[in-house]
Amino acid sequence: MFSYRHAFHAGSHADILKHLVMIHLLEYLQEKPGALTIVDTHAGAGIYSLIDGFATVSKEADQGIYRLAQFAKNNSVSPGIENYLACIHSENTADEITIYPGSPFILARLLRSHDRLKLFELHPKEIDILRHNINQLKQTKQIDVYAEDSFTRLKGLMPPPSRRGLVLIDPSYEDKQDYRYLENTIEEALHRFATGCFAIWYPCLSRRESASLPDHIKKIATTHKRSWLQVELRVENAPKDRRLQASGMFIINPPWTLEKQLAESMPILVRALGQDGGAGFVLKSFEA
Ligand code: SAM
Hints:
globular, eight-stranded mixed β-sheet, alpha/beta, about 290 residues, Rossmann fold, 10 helices
């Protein structure tokens, strides 16, 4: 436990998919004036350098954000990808990307003055870095940071006072129990806040718990009579390689606009980030 540091993966293809979807969800919810509570259950350190530290060891950004940014210079991309890239560029002063904002920073920058952001992080080092980073933001007064286990604490925040909320659930799946904890957490959260928008990131791995996760969440959503959308991005298909080659987002109560945006963006992400003929995407949805 606690060997996972998100800096190794900052700006990877998995971050691109997750953050592209997350930005769309938040901006859609912000089209209505009512206050929003946004919960990021697995926050990480908040923002990452891509030019020193852990990110330079794994170099995942080379096949991720750097590749996409280069592609976008030479090709037209969808409005959703343009919007995502604008969020990443806004953390960087020059044209060159040296900083990658994690979910807490992307969400914080998009907060309106009456929205609230709640961040959970358990790692003893990451929580200190996260607190330090969040304190640099002008939105810091709207943000609560908890050094607590979000799987047990989320239900206590549901439903939020305004009854309008977005919950990003992005575990590291370091502990294989995370799959079970996640399913229990969603079940409890939907029980208390059936109309909330829940966005769950998951890795596409061959291990049993991982392969069955989307079907388990689908079952929970369907039992609660909730609409859902599932999107997966595969950048390569090299079964013997241990690198993460595909990941997905599962959204419960997705906005009606999301599927159209992803139908435009996913083929472009495959062209931009695909590394072999096995690259592709999955986009499925169900309307309750
Ligand atoms: N959401 C971040 C982003 O997109 O920038 C990345 C988060 S990273 C995948 C997962 C984080 O969750 C790690 O920093 C890990 O220490 C933390 N974590 C693991 N289990 C947790 C738990 N039960 N409650 C809160 N945080 C947890």
